[in-house]
């Protein structure tokens, strides 16, 4: 009986030219994801109902519920993108992921854009530039040197579990995690970008540029979140 699911052609089996084509598709989808994120964020911030609801969910156990819902939704979207070869379903999963990223950013971006005035706009611009510069630099380092950063997986896993534990403790007991936690999370996000980038040729097939873009987009947004928090803490 003919196999209905042909063996996936992995990126590491491609020629250098074809790999470059895969990278271009992947990073163009990351860029498109950022643009869609901006559009979603703009639309969400126009809704007083959404803004008020999200602001009401930023304290104590409510924030934990929100983070839990966010993690469930984004993990579902990420799994959906990886499990299917249907391009439309992959785009749907990517769109779902971007929407929930935009939703979780609503409280912080509302504070920056609406409550901090012109100073907040400058701060947002600076944080965006720093985030994109770091993301580009880290990705370029991996792609140009071809260094294998897969050894970071264990450290990243442990680091993220510790971070989740600290976030839960901070939310339940009401203490601020502070500047150094944000710095540590930026290091984790940077490590995640290195790992995701070096893993492109090992994990994904030639047609998996959408799931690959989703993973990189997730790390980019995590980096942006904590860089923005660092900039906000200066004031």
TrEMBL record:
Lineage, highest ranks first: Bacteria, Pseudomonadati, Bacteroidota, Flavobacteriia, Flavobacteriales
Keywords assigned by UniProt, alphabetized: Membrane, Transmembrane, Transmembrane helix
Membrane topology value: Multi-pass membrane protein
Species of the source: Winogradskyella damuponensis
Pfam families the record matches: Bax1-I
Transmembrane is among the record's keywords: yes
Protein's name in the database: Bax inhibitor-1 family protein
InterPro entries documented for this protein: Bax_inhibitor_1-related
Transmembrane segments: 27-45, 60-79, 91-111, 123-143, 155-173, 209-228
Recorded family membership: Belongs to the BI1 family.
UniProt subcellular location: Membrane
